[in-house]
Amino acid sequence: MLSSLPVFCVADGIMRLSGKIPDFVIFQFIQNDVMATGKPGSIDEYIAGFPETVRAILYEIRAEVRAAAPDAEETISYDMPTFNLNGTYLIYFAAWKKHVALYPVTAAISEALSEELAGFKGTKGSVHFPLNKPMPLDLIRKIVTLRIAENRRAAQK
Q: Residue 6: pLDDT above 50?
């Protein structure tokens, strides 16, 4: 099916009417536009995409990471808020349906904080903090502090 929208071609700087746009092309254009703009370009954009209660939690986590690592640079990597230090990633965090995950929690960090991490689920390399409970901001700061030490050791190699 053809859309009623006209198609313009630009050649040699001159715009000319050249026909009608097939609907699937319009759909593809809209879909690509949404896909191109659907990914956050900053931590602020990432956080803005969540409900108010989750945004408040994400801002708390961000502030805690920022306080522990004031020299880290904010970015988005793997579609998640990321803090980089010494030219490499330091910490990621991401909100999910029922929890906020913090990455990476290395084997050394898991061992050093085993008692404090015992009450939380996670996967290999991450810890999950439930959204329906207070965020353990002190624990997050400890994880970030240990990651800074790991990051510095790696940068010295």
A: no
